[in-house]
Amino acid sequence: MPALLQRLKQAYNQETVDALFEDYLFHQNTIYTVTYAAVPYLMQIACSTNYPEVQHH
């Protein structure tokens, strides 16, 4: 998961977002411990992107 977060931080990509959420953060409608740990990084990425749809969520 750190590699996916790093990739997402370098360049926003919907496929990376999908893989991150589907495989690690919200797999089969379950929230894991790593989900909570990833939130600060996801917020930082969302705040630094130029994609309005990301900032809106």
Question: In words, what does this structure look like?
Answer:
- The chain is mainly alpha-helical and 57 residues long.
- It has four helices and no strands.
Give a topology summary.
Elements: H1 2-10, H2 14-25, H3 33-48, H4 52-56
Keywords:
single chain; 57 residues; 74% helix
N-to-C SSE series?
HHHH
Fraction of helical residues: over 70%
The N- and C-terminal alpha carbons lie at a distance of 21 Å
Q: Mean pLDDT, rounded to whole units?
A: 85
How large is the radius of gyration? 11 Å
Portion in beta strands: under 5%
Residue ranges: pLDDT <50 for 5 or more in a row? none
Count of DSSP H/I helices:
4
Strand count, sense and barrel status of the largest sheet are:
none
Structural class: mainly alpha
Task: Tell me how many strands there are.
Answer: 0
Give the CA-based shape.
Answer: globular
In brief, what are we looking at here?
This protein is mainly α and 57 residues long. It has helices at 2-10, 14-25, 33-48, 52-56. It is globular.
